[in-house]
Each structure stands twice: as C-alpha cells, then as structure tokens.
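User: Predict the structure for this protein chain, please.
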Amino acid sequence: MKTLFKIMIVAGGLILTGCIKETMPQQNVATSDQVANSPGVFQTFVNTCTSSLVGQFTYSGSNMYPWDYGYPSFFLQRDVMGQDIVLDEQDWYTTWYGVGTGLGPRYAVCQLPWTYYYKWINNCNTVLNMAGDNPSEDMVQGAGIALAMRAMFYMDLARMFQYTYKGNEDKITVPIVTEKTLDFTNNPRATNTEIWAFILEDLDRAEKYLAEYVRADIYTPDVKVVYGLKARAYLTMEDFPNAEKYAKMAQEGFSPLSEVEYLDRMTAFNTPNHAWIYGLTFKSDDPNILLNDSDSNWGSQMFLEVQDVLYASNYGQPKRIDAHLYSTIPDTDYRKKCYIDFAIDNMDYESAVEAISKYSDYPERIIASAGATTSGAVGGLQLKFRAGGGADGRNGNAFAATCVAVPLMRVEEMMLIEAEAAGMQDEGRGKQLLEAFAKLRNPQYAYDATVSFRDNVWWQRRVELWGEGFATFDIKRLNKGVIRSYAGTNHYPGARFNTETAPSWTNLCIVETETEYNKGIQENNPTPVTPEDSPEHVW
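Assistant: Here is the predicted structure, written as structure tokens:
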C-alpha cells in the first residue's frame, strides 16, 4: 500500500492532465462529426456514465488490489474512517481505518479517488460535449443522465475533500472540470460555495431534461434520483425547506422495507426492491467477478456464509458493527438482528451454533469466518448484506454469490432527510416524522429526550444506513467526534482513538502529481498522522 503513485501511473497506463483522463473508454470528447457518422455512439457514451461505476479494475488495470472495484468501495473507504464499522488487523481497508500517512499525497492510495471520480466525470463531460448547450430531442435525456451523475460525483468529492458546507463556505474542495475546461494546468480548487452552486446547476438542468424520462431499471438515474440528490445537497447546505421538499418528492412511488425484507436470508440488500430509488449491479462478465477468484468486489468484502472463498467469509476480513453502537440498539428494534450478538462469544460451540441459527442458515460457517480473524470473535459480525446466488452462492460458487446489486439511494434515507429537515424548521413536526419512521423498525421506539432532535435523527441514520457510505459525511455535516476507545470496545489496539469534533483525516489529500502539474492548486489538505490510542471515553 506504500507504492508511490508515479509507479502506478506507468503500471496503470494512465495519462496525467489537470485531472486524470483514462484512455478507456475514451481519451477525449467525441466530435460532432464522429457522432453523426457513428449511429448509436451517443447512447453508448451515455450508458458508460452508469455502467462504469463497478466491474472494472479502474485504478490499476490489474486484480492486485481487492478494493479496486468501483463505487461501493468508497462506501467502505469512507465509513471505516469513522467509528461504526470495525475491522480486524489484516483487512484490506486498514489504510483508511488506521488513518495514517499512507493516505498522504505521496502514496498510491491517495490516487484512488482521483482516478475513479475524474474518469467518471470525464465520461459525463463527453456526453455533455456531444449534446451541446441545447440538446436535441434525441439527446436531451442522455444529457440529463450525465448531468445527474456528474452532480453526484462532485457532491461526493466536495464532501470527501473538505468539511461540510455550512460554516465552511469559503474553504476549498476540488477543481471543477467540465466539458468546456481547457486549462488543466491552472485549475484551482473550488470553494464550497462555488462547487455546491455548480452541483445545483447541474441538478436543475437534469431535473428539466429528465422530467418525462421513463427508465428501464433502477440502474439509471431518473427524475426521482435527481430529487434525491437535491435533497442530499440541500440538507448538506442546510437549506431545510428545499431538503424537505425534494426528499418528499423522491419518495413518491417507493415504500420502506418490511422486517421480512430487511432480514431476508437470501435477498437482503443484494436485490432491488420497492425501497431502492437507485442502485448498481455487478454482472457475470465483469472483470471484478471473473478474476482473482471473485475476491475483488463488494461481495468479497461484505458477505459471510459463503464456503471456502471470499475475504469476508474465509480470509479473516469480515466487517463488524461498533460494540457501543450495537449496545444502543434496543432488542425490540429488528435491525439489531443484522449483527451477531456479542454474548455468543461466551458460549460453547454447540450453544453458539444454536444461537447463530437465529441469524443464519449456515451458523458453522459464521463461526469459521470468525475463526480466521485475529480476534476470533463472532460478536458484531454483520449480516445486513447477504450473498447472492441462493444456496449455490453459499455453497462455494463465488461468482453467483458476488453478482449482486448494491443500493445507492433508498426511500428510507429520504424519509430521514425529510424528518431532519422538517425538524430543523419545526421540531415538533420533525419529531412526529422521526417517530413514525422509527416505529417501522421498532414498534416500541421511544424518543431520547436526553439528546438533541438532530442527534436522534443521526442515530437512526447510523443504524439504518450502516455500511452504505454515509458515516463520515454525517460526522462532518454534524461536526461529530469519532469515539473508538471506551470500555468494552471492539476496535483493535492502535486504532482506539477519540476526537471531540470531525477529524481532519476525513478530508482526503490530493495526490502529489496533481498538485505538481496543476499550479492552480496552492494548498493541499494535511497528511494524516495516526493518533495514539486515547483514554477510554465514558458514555
């Protein structure tokens, strides 16, 4: 993980400009003559805006990095920098979990978001260049898809490379590259004010262009996805009336998961349903599925129960829930059943098998998965995300197990945005919405009057959206500390550090080769230094 990026440029065959441009699927934007002479090429480029989100070894071109599998990998990169996901010491994501100098601008991992996100943005820019400022009728919906995707990518980048918008309006994020950008050597980092205005402009145009679009499946954004992206943007900017408005609009036509669906042992969080507004899917012919024994993909990192294969199931790299967060989930909240009870670690083998049978049809495999870890514990192991492929996937067919869908936006997220946004205008109204949502998961839910309304919402987001990529975005947005050191912690020694506010390590560094080439970047984010273990926090 400490290979210098300059080595990776040669190995990956990348071309360095103001932002990384990938040689595939295109080097530069297509000309109008090329479009006119190539029937169907425009739609091919539109499809690339979404199909490139997963499946390829985009970072390195090889299967040597099991976190090189696309958009869902960034869920884990971000979330493990907080407190809610716990790793074992040999996990592939410990560079992010340990938040040390390996995330600095001279190291290979620093290049990862730059390569991925600016390639995705370049794909969108190609479509928008083809479509022009006033897209024709046959291009307007493709342009809308590209605008929605570009806005989503810049929204992620803004939140990954800087603190939240509110109170940090003048702080710098990342350079903005559009289809009209010509000077990549003097392209400064945009401020929060500039980049969020740009994001909203893209979303306004996308909303207009996609107003009549009817998509074939949830793997392509439509106007409901645009509404959801606007809800996220306005929540971050603390424009609560608009956040509430668009969150409500995004929910239309969708409904939350039932308990049976949430906990389904075959399809939970691997198959699109009425709660998913937007998602992506791994396909059987993806390199991330076919190569490296299907170990370089989301399922390999997240799925237990699969016999003999996958990092999480067999090679000591499962993901766990933070012990304190788990302890705060009431037994009457069925989401608690997504995680193995810590008390089972004190049972003998036969009793443990019986107890784990309440969570899984393959309890012996869960115990075997735990046995491959450094801690050896089953407590906290996650079963929210289930393997695909039915019994075949669980019986060792890694390809069937990992060809799954991943949610990018769910109606439940929109319900929580609506509740928070409403409550920041009228706390009583927000509290009613929050309680209505919480009772879908826990009929005996009781609002916690000892903490603020917003903290009540944050707790629901931490539990409901665990592992879906929102953790550090919320930590920054709410300026929360990261607490890993406390009595009974399951974070390993050397990663037990506490902060009082949003930690600076959640602001990613810009890779050094970019700052050397692009003279418009005058300042980088600080290189993280791994903190020492903190004294135990008392709750």
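DSSP finds 24 helices and six strands in the chain.
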